[in-house]
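Internal ticket - ligand job 326, flavin mononucleotide:
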Amino acid sequence: MSHPTPHLDAIEPKLFRQLLGCFPTGVAVITTNAADGRPAGLTCNSFSSVSLEPPLVLFSLRKASSLLRAFVEADTFAINILSQSQDVLSARFASSKVADKFEGVAWRPGPLGTPLIDDCLASFECRVHARHEAGDHEIFIGEVKHMTTGSADHALVFYKGAYMMLAESLRKLVLGGQLGTADIDEAYRALYGTLLRLACERASDAEVDVIEAAADEIEQHQGKDALAQRIEATARFFSSIALAGHNEALRLMAQTMTTVLRERMTHVIPARPRPEAFPLRRKVVQCLRARDAEGAVSALDELIATLRKDSGVHDEAAVVPAPAEG
Ligand SMILES: Cc1cc2nc3c(=O)[nH]c(=O)nc-3n(C[C@H](O)[C@H](O)[C@H](O)COP(=O)(O)O)c2cc1C
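stdout (structure tokens):
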């Protein structure tokens, strides 16, 4: 027999929110243009599909939001569905403290002129179909006029008040210093060594071009202020090697390691440029082109050893304290 569950008559607000959080949702950034032409947007998990014919979607916006006016005055909006790598973007667009939410964010106007954010899983540009008042929220129903496919990453999922993702638990491990450098390096060597061997057999020339382009990009982003771009280019370098290996299970493991890499580059490893690593990444690419698996693997080993040298990381727990919860 199942446990007796208490029947709750009073809808106590805190518990109401908590129970709503039991329903996992995706996360989107909804954007529009304010009357002065400036882009506006917020993080939103109330997005839902409504109708296929005609294609309708909805989201609800808190009436107290500073953005209500912009959305009420505009006759178009865009839904940008976030990937699990875009949790920082989600936090940015959910914060009232960020004065210009679009600063440093890559976006372009869609055919209707609404801001489409780069690297999302999908974007839908809508014309407002209807608006309904509902309690402390305003429901916007949009007719989808254009849609864009994007990144092949997994979705960012919001569940029980937090992002439900592998990345979140990995982040805690990295920041808490529970993943040791020696273990991580061994995992990089084993995983990417195998992927490089496979890529030497299976990668197309175009896939090697993508890996090379990522290496070029790392070299271009060496300025002190270019850490975010350097992290993304480095993540792309490794994830494109993973794609070129053509093994879906290993690619998933590599995705986990990319998350670890991002967290370490952001919070643990001193974030200075490492020009001494340039020739080694180039060597990895050259060996891939020449289908020289042994050469590629030894260049990777050298790359890891070089990056670790003088990195100042001995014990992560001592470098960065675990953040407070919440
Ligand atoms: C995961 C998540 C989902 C959210 N969903 C909504 C939503 O559906 N509707 C809404 O009005 N606010 C939602 N918010 C809150 C807004 O993002 C936030 O209040 C707003 O961006 C703050 O900007 P403002 O102060 O400029 O209005 C959500 C926040 C998070 C973190």
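Auto-summary: The chain has a mean pLDDT of 88. The chain has two domains: 13-163, 167-319.
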